[in-house]
Amino acid sequence: MPELPEVEVVRQGLQEILKEQPVLEKVELMRPDLREPIPAKKIRTLVGEKVLSVDRRAKYLLLWTARGGMLSHLGMTGTWRVAVPGDERLHDHIYLHFSGGLRLAYRDPRRFGYFDFIADPLTHPKLKELGPEPLLATFTGQSLWESLRGKEVALKVALMDQKVVVGVGNIYASEALFAAGIKPSLAAKSLSKERAEVLVGEIKKILTRSIEQGGSSISDFAQASGESGYFQITFRVYGREDEDCLQCGKRIRAKVLGGRNTFWCPHCQK
Ligand SMILES: [Zn+2]
Mind spelling out the 3-state secondary structure of 96-160? Predict the structure, then answer.
């Protein structure tokens, strides 16, 4: 499943392709729905408008015009690509035609993706309750510490709660906790302000590194064949059950927390 760094790299790719602000000329839907129905009429009110920018909120992409935007979530297997004439593929569900002969295709074999019209990010039902963006300066040790107050759940489970912070998935939560030396099962409310500061720093670092590596690995976005999945970041604990800790040599442990497999080093993480 694409995580925040993957979605951010897709955003950067789309922004580059759409930087001349082409006019949306036609919206071609090959089916009426993805995970939910696609509001074709509303989206077609954007035809004739220039695409001004491509933004991201959590794992949602927003293609903005002066009259509203298109909201896209990639689900498990969604991809956007530039589709030159003749490049139509199985599972292409949406074609966006732009001035200058540019055509973008949305392909999604498993159809867990989502495509909607959006007028205002503050009121859209998918966005209005989302927590802070991890890479913005407003996400700090202090703000995390405050949002964890009174929370009995394990810290790792809290980190994956989209109301606490968006876009920290299972892998990134495990890796950031390892880097910060904090055990995943610690009660969220017991995290000190000082350790919250360290943890926030590690979350920002690991997401930034992943975006940078991903950006270089799919720089030829226009030709991207559309594989999704995690970038090839080096995992230090994730998926390494019973292997040696890279830091202390002791055995990496695994257990299920909040329904998700969790990896940690009992020696390095307290
Ligand atoms: Zn260790």
Answer: EEEHHHCEEEEECCCCCCEEEEECCCCCCCCCCCCCCCCCCCCCCHHHHHHHHCCCCCEHHHHHC
Which among 29, 51, 45 has a CA at the least distance from the CA of 100?
51
Select the CATH number that applies to the domain covering 141-264 from these four: 1.20.120.160, 3.30.70.3270, 1.10.8.50, 3.40.1190.20.
1.10.8.50
Which residues are placed with Cβ below 5 angstroms of ligand 1, an ion? 245, 247-248, 265, 267-268
Query: Is 5 in contact with 214 (CB distance < 8 Å)?
Result: yes
Mean predicted confidence (pLDDT) in 118-141: 96
Indicate the class that CATH gives domain 4-118: alpha beta
Q: How many residues does the chain have?
A: 270
Q: Which residues are catalytic?
A: 2-3, 59, 260
Q: What does pTM read for this prediction?
A: 0.90
User: What's the whole-number average pLDDT of the chain?
Assistant: 92
Query: Per-residue pLDDT tens for 162-174?
Result: 999 999 989 899 9
